[in-house]
Amino acid sequence: MGVGIIGLGKYVPAKKVTNVELEKFVDTDDEWIRTRTGIEARHFAADDEDTSDLAIHAAKEALQQAALSAEQIDMVIVATVTPDQAFPSVANIVQDAIGAKNAASMDMSAACTGFMYGLVTAQQFVQTGAYNNVLVIGVEKLSKVLDFENRNTAVLFGDGASAAIVSNVAEGRGFLAFDLGSDGSGGKHLFLNDQRHIEMNGREVFKFAVRTMGESALRVIEKAGLQKEDVDYLIPHQANIRIMDAARTRLGLPEEKMSKTIHLYGNTSAASIGLSLYDDVASGKIKDGDKLVLVGFGGGLTWGAILLIWGK
Ligand code: COA
User: Fold this and answer.
1) What is the pLDDT of residue 238?
2) Alpha carbon 208 to chain centroid, angstroms
3) Which of the residues are catalytic?
4) Every domain of the chain and the residues it spans
5) For position 308, what pLDDT does the model report?
6) Which parts of the sequence are annotated with region: ACP-binding (predicted)?
């Protein structure tokens, strides 16, 4: 048996803010944002909608897709850097709200790489036989940590949630390899400041991202005993189209073999890879048996890649 994903869920808040609308309250312009980042719009949660609310929507859909009841979930892992509060964790709130009364629950903080760390952690529990079903959620309400006076960061991020249920799948499907890493010495390039706003050295993060996404993706392919020609589809963290294209080029993949949802949602940090996976499975771009490379990077600094054969 393999270990893979048996159900996905997604939620983006109703309020969509285009670049042109952002121009009204940030000193920026649509042309700059589109050409430098690929972002055209993002969604912002309502004032009375917190991170856990987004997570709960995505979790419920993943349960439905997996045809599982909440009682069958053994663990809830929530990857986020924008929890409702330090504790109880978002995972504790989700566990209660969905009625996962048999589940352990915890949050995980690895910034935009959070979903990768969450999936790999879930995989270990299922592979050892300790647990049957682990619900992994990547969720952010980044709008609450954006400084709209700071155009370097205010234009980049959005809110959203994605969820995946990790369980046993058929032989020949599921996780083949992973690569996780971190370099705390780069923490100073991307962090939450004393005012609880995101601060970023864009150029340093850009250089780090281009290097690490490509290297981590190549490492995971090698660990899986495959060649880059074997990869059917790339799902990179959706932070900047230029960074994503650099990773795609390292793998020698054409444009249509890379997931692109950044124009719709902006950078949703821990939610981004799951949102992309969800949309591309729903639209039929990802098919049963496809060899996927999921790869992300983020604050920490952190990075991670997974080689996954899609299907259950
Ligand atoms: N709107 C309009 N102009 C802007 C702007 C905005 N939102 N943000 C910056 N500018 C201006 C700058 O002030 C600068 O003007 P100047 O030359 O007169 O000083 C100019 O645009 C160029 O800025 P620069 O920082 O060199 O742009 P860039 O090409 O490096 O792109 C980023 C900036 C942020 C898009 C890019 O560095 C990036 O994507 N970095 C990685 C960020 C990332 O992925 N973060 C998430 C990690 S999970």
Assistant:
1) 98
2) 18
3) 112, 237, 267
4) 2-169, 174-309
5) 98
6) 238-242
